[in-house]
Amino acid sequence: MKTIAHYILPLLALFSLSPWISSGTALLMGILTSIIFGNPYNIQTKKLGHTFLSLAVMGLGAGMNLRIIGTVGLAGIGYTIVGIVSAFFFGNILGKILKIEKNTSLLITVGTAICGGSAIAAVASVVRARSHEVSVALGIVFMLNALALFIFPWIGHYLNLSEAQFGLWSALAIHDTSSVVGATLHYGPQALEVGTTVKLARALWIIPVAMLIGIVRSRNQKSSVAENQKGKRPWFILGFLLAAALVTFFPSLQPAGHNIEIIAKKLMILTLFLIGTNLTKETIKSVGIKPFIQGIALWSIMAIGTLSAVTLNLINI
Fold first, then answer.
1. Please, what's the largest Cα pairwise distance for the chain?
2. Domain for residue 185, yes or no?
3. How much is the pLDDT for 228?
């Protein structure tokens, strides 16, 4: 099996860059490859995974317009802060009750609080999370994203939500931007516009949250001998912000920024494949079902809470 893996793993890594492979598919493909054939390139895939995560996050900034996102972000700064703080509060409680690994619990929480895979990718690089911790968190997020694509439109129609209400709820309760687009696309053009803009504005919170986590983790690890991995300050987040600023304030760079964003998305998919290849049978058994319980419970709390706030007109846009 290991001999086969020497050939099949590089081939599947290249195949993950094809237009037919989505983020979730790449992660699943990597996990299955590791479980069935093993990973003879374990050291290389771990190193490349961390490097590619940082590069992909920086590249994604090239597809953002800071002016539009900033306007929407300022309009909803109150409920955004409340939502993020609430997610961290409940995520921390659930993680402690279920006795989940610190990094795994943090990644699930930040993915729920901000914007799914992108937030997990950013914070994973900051705290130097292990590959299996990242894989578990991403797997849970992608599973819930897929579920949201089916149940959110049904709930929206059942409750007779307006397009603006549905777009706002989707942006606040669905993890990834791509899934927000998928859920709102067929609900109506206004739902799509509101959902996408609010989600992108929320995504900018990756920057302060990741930087804060990096600073706090670095300080904590200075006084801890139990940790053998050093935290690092998330300078790549500044790269993300710089890329967004350049394409915003220099419109002539927008075509190049769009191409960089496309490359970054492809690189993120390849990264997810590499991360998946580092998840072994032994790791899956040791992780158990508790992280899934945390992810589902936290998502349910946030989805029900934001839906209640939207339907009661406590938050609007």
1. 60
2. yes
3. 40
